[in-house]
């Protein structure tokens, strides 16, 4: 059966992450096919050389024998110990040899149930000394009757009576000669030429063999037996290439691995697939060929709602038409109207790899089988575990069963555990109803020793319906956890607000925007979490949590999903490195453009305008425009262009050099400024230049400067002259790479950047050069990345999200700061009594905070009297000192709105003090105008200030009509754009230790109740509750969050439901936000008076725990296992087990304590796990 071999997959195996352990069956390098000509394989007689064909004398097990033959351009020749030829026609050139079939040929074919990978082709060739002999040769090959392809370059060889061993031909780089499937036929041809004298005058031969091991031709490589599988387990991880994704390019690493697996599934084996979206033609074609090869295909394709229905609208009919012998099931999940089969897994009963044959292979990924998903951050896992395979297969069959009859009543949430791999199959349902547990929160709750832990998340969709996850992350961050979150802008509005709160607490947070605009385009489709630290009773655990499971309500309650948890997997380092690479990603979007289409030669819009402002920029920059240096002048008459020429007349003698251009300021200048609270990284410049003649300007150099327009501060991007590309209309110029300039990466907020294009060449003042649009492409494009820079932000209002997470409408009574430093209390932006946003006046402004004046107010005094101001306060928490640096504001007015303003502040109940003088503001820009930064660093009273409150007021006047024109703070262009911000630093001044007023322990039946009270708290992150059986070796019982800062009494308590028999010691450890800790006194409780049932013994062998109860009768019994530090390893209700108890459990070597509590009392014993 014909099989299309893979063409581009082998090299991926070299670079993809893979972990193999104890592989016991591996194919060995050997001679797969060979010919020796010393003696005939049939009778042992000397080979004459003139046989019409010659059968291979050696072939490996699993490889069919092959026949050596001649093409029509050759005839046989009697020459001992070889396979000899002479010509039938003149073969003087390669083209002639190709046309006249001047070749020697043989085939290579694996047998049934075998496959092969080829590494080397070797040959010993002989020619006579006759001048008419062949002098050149070339190897070629063909697969399954396809076109021939070159295998080697043209090679020459010299005459030698006994033949010459040629340089080997390396086959390992030929992807289609690796893992050649059973019964595939590879045909090899050796073309020879150089015969110039006449027909039949020269002799060419393969050989001569001097002994029985002297081969004329050999093919070397590996052969694989489909029935001999690798019997050790593997784990492999695959990831899309972040750098390609950041550029908007496709990365088909995962898709190619999937296609590879499909192509390497032997005939008669099974593939089970459950997929949300499938439309990638490469995958579809591979499935078609697999069915033709005899692979049994079983597919579940989702058609539950519009997105999968659209994605699969064409591919599903294609599959049904092209896979007539396959099982194709459409799934319509009915748990809710939005429920889906969100799986992306494929099961292979066998797959051939370079290492050997794998059985029971599971391929699980976040990557839909679509082209669009190849442009997203994705991960995939591959296992060859029978247990994992069967768990997924059971889930596949469950979905199949309920695909038509309904998931809502039939599906039951279930899990599978094997060797630190846990699978959780959703939806979280039982007996037809949803349960309330959240597996992700449970994983976060399992973290102990929180301040030493690290949590990293890369998440696709994160809805407001799962608030417990982000709330738990905030709690963990407050307790000192190191947290990094990377998410696409598909998070819910409330979730994004809380993510910003998490960022303000010191966590690393990056939200990538999928849309055009302020934030970078980077689509994260993975659903990954990494946890490092003490987790689920394991010290210094390294945990991977991945799968198809988004942080959405549907993923938890309605969808078919899987959550995969790997504990201490050898793949952790690959996942960790992938996260580190995500942190370095610079997604490239247009930072700003000069779109010159508005230069239409009308009045005020001609190509000689002094400056031209950016017409399209992301939210991270302001004040972007182009201008000319003093050595250039503007020229009219060029539509969609910014045209210039020299002021100075050059001659052939004076010439226009870079030195002249630099001295005379002959440059075009691009400048812009990063916004407050925003940082930028610049990637490249794409630009288009139009010159009136080739000699108008011949060369250029780009320079840049930061925060200075002084000539001496500019640095070169091009150190030498670069030639312009010329076209009379306009020409695209070579891209200018900025990514390698450190100063242009992570540029802080409120930074001015200047680029100068120095114009070199040209001798007159009439020839012109210009930035110009070309075919709708703007004449100048600066690409890079922008992100929030909150390093000095104390308070900020981003009005694209207001109090409830949605965009501000402008008429809210108050809006709470959505950037609030951890040492600062949230603040409300409000209006004074003289400003209003009453509905009757239709006062709204999306992404702003606006007002009209209730009165005619034309002076500052009237503004003071009427209360015409906006106000907010900055209130530090207890024992916090503030040093304020700057106040930033974007202000917006309508044509009849106030046109003057002034900032003031006061500390506590003091008098208001002017921050600025009177400012006249007349612009009516619809998006507002960023005002000059108000410098606070120079005000002594606002440095190292310890105050309950600092109040700021923005007084506004110039309203000539009451309740008419508007004045506003805003607008925020997007989530990166703060309309109002206070920058500065905060320090905790002489923080008092947490005053522990009481710490008590008391018995309560068979438990211990711990109570403690604080009289005050400063900088208190949390309490660690510690327990010991000897007062020396302590273990963590639990972590209780502190109040941070408090001056009132707070009570805490905790119940230890599992005290030791005998002495129990307890201690508190109070942990500050900066990681400092203070221990409490030690308390002890004695449980010697507990009834103890003796007579049990324990055996632990081969991951089985056997408890010998000696026929004792227990009612309502609970079994618990602790490590020597008192940490609970497992707890199980064994009431229904009669007699001896046998439990599967995996324990690391060490001493453990087993406890059985029941109505009869408590029985304990120690045992050792080896």
UniProtKB/TrEMBL annotation:
EC code(s) of this entry: 3.1.4.4
Gene Ontology BP, a term: lipid catabolic process
Reactions catalysed: a 1,2-diacyl-sn-glycero-3-phosphocholine + H2O = a 1,2-diacyl-sn-glycero-3-phosphate + choline + H(+)
Superkingdom, taxonomy of origin: Bacteria
Gene3D superfamilies cross-referenced by the UniProt entry: Endonuclease Chain A (3.30.870.10)
Record keywords: Hydrolase, Lipid degradation, Lipid metabolism, Signal
Residue ranges annotated for the Phospholipase D-like domain, each copy included: 267-383, 451-582
Signal sequence region: 1-27
Transmembrane keyword on record: no
Keyword S-adenosyl-L-methionine: no
SUPFAM superfamilies: Phospholipase D/nuclease
InterPro entries: PLD-like_dom, PLD_domain, Secre_tail
Pfam families, per database record: PLDc_2
Family listed: Belongs to the phospholipase D family.
Identification of the protein by name: phospholipase D
Protein's organism: Pseudopedobacter saltans (strain ATCC 51119 / DSM 12145 / JCM 21818 / CCUG 39354 / LMG 10337 / NBRC 100064 / NCIMB 13643)
Organismal lineage: Bacteria, Pseudomonadati, Bacteroidota, Sphingobacteriia, Sphingobacteriales
